[in-house]
Write a structure and sequence with these properties.
Layout: H1 2-16, E1 18-20, E2 27-29, H2 31-50, H3 55-88, E3 94-97, E4 104-109, H4 110-113, H5 126-138, E5 144-148, H6 156-176, E6 184-188, H7 201-207, E7 209-214
Parallel strand pairs: 5-6
Antiparallel strand pairs: 1-2, 3-4, 4-7, 5-7
Helix pairs in contact: 1-2, 1-3, 2-3, 3-5, 5-6
């Protein structure tokens, strides 16, 4: 009976989170509902494991608490993803949701961010970064990871340094625009993790990129 109640709770969270994707027109389960369902299952497991002689009751309490926590984080991330998609539309920046980590990833190709072999931000791109900084300052519960990459032209040591300098440039710009430095980490990956074929100029331009991950908060904003 208790297992049925937990299952019903998870199913209810999923059904309540069914929405229409504004970009595809297809029905989908929101990340908030997914987070709520995952939180409910985890909460139930923890409650049952620590509930002593009242494992069934503890599982139900844990499911409810976990569902609220996971759902709250998911809703927070859903709202931020929507805002970022609207803000980055037409800028050349791709906005993607990482299904494994729950982070919102922004992919910024070299064609709009940096000149070849340079780490100073293109002046034409600074406006986009300023808009991004405003949103990151408004949604201030998460850490932000800035990753720099290069193509495979040149030696590994040079590219590693260049990628770190590019990541630092973007991170420092966001900080100057008001994003708390304690939230931001910059990492260079050199020529590793290419997303396109380095044998063509078009592919190399895609690989010369900066990616920003807006990581999910550990707790529901305002409750942790």
């Amino acid at each position: 009976m208790r297992a049925l109640v937990v299952t019903t709770l998870v199913a209810g969270l999923a059904l309540s989170g069914c929405t229409t994707n504004p970009y595809t027109g297809q029905s989908q389960v929101s990340k908030g509902a997914i987070g709520g369902g995952a939180g409910a299952l985890l909460g139930a497991a923890i409650g049952a494991a620590t509930g002593g002689g009242h494992k069934g009751k503890a599982a139900l309490i844990g499911a409810a608490a976990g569902g609220l926590l996971g759902g709250g984080v998911g809703v927070y991330m859903d709202a931020q993803e929507k805002k970022l998609r609207e803000q980055m539309q037409g800028t050349g920046v791709a906005v993607e949701r990482n299904q494994q980590t729950g982070a919102v990833d922004l992919i910024m190709p070299g064609a709009i961010t940096f000149a070849t072999a340079r780490s100073d931000i293109n002046p034409s791109f600074s406006g986009t970064l300023s808009q991004l900084a405003q949103t990151l300052s408004s949604y201030n519960q998460q850490t932000i990871t800035v990753r720099g990459y290069t193509d495979n032209v040149g030696n590994a040591s040079y590219n590693q340094q260049l990628s770190q300098e590019r990541a630092n440039s973007v991170a420092n710009y966001l900080i100057r625009q008001g994003v708390a430095a304690s939230r931001v980490q910059a990492v260079g990956y050199g020529m590793n993790n290419p997303v396109a074929d380095n044998s063509t100029e078009a592919g190399r331009s895609q690989n010369r990129r900066v990616e920003i991950s807006v990581n999910p908060p550990a707790t529901v904003p305002g409750q942790g």
